[in-house]
Amino acid sequence: MSSFGSPYIPWHKVKATVPQGIQVPMCFCGSLCKLMESQVLGDDFGTRFFMCENYEYDPPKRYNKERPKTPPSLCDFMHWLDTEQS
After folding, report:
1. Cα 33 vs. chain centroid, distance in angstroms?
2. Can you give the pTM of this predicted structure?
3. How do residues 14-65 score in pLDDT, each as one tens digit?
4. Structural domain tally of the chain?
5. In this structure, is residue 65 part of a structural domain?
6. Which domain holds residue 34?
7. Residue 74 is assigned to a structural domain of this protein
8. Who's near 66: CB < 8 A, 6+ residues apart?
9. Rounded CA gap, 71 and 62, in Å?
10. Does a structural domain hold residue 33?
């Protein structure tokens, strides 16, 4: 299941906590990744993966005076942390 730049990112996901001792990777655009957990029913349910903070399908939820209205550059970095279901 391990992949970099994989076209498959679970569409229903929640933010997860990075376990102690796990190094957070940097993505293609140089940002630290966020750890997410798949909530899609099926083989990947509950598996965790790193994805770019600037992933193209996760636009910012809000805009304000400090945050520009233009989205960040798009990045498709993705790496599975869990390689098996527990």
Report:
1. 6
2. 0.67
3. 899 999 999 999 988 888 999 999 888 888 888 999 988 877 655 455 555 5
4. 1
5. no
6. 1-17+25-59+70-86
7. yes
8. none
9. 11
10. yes
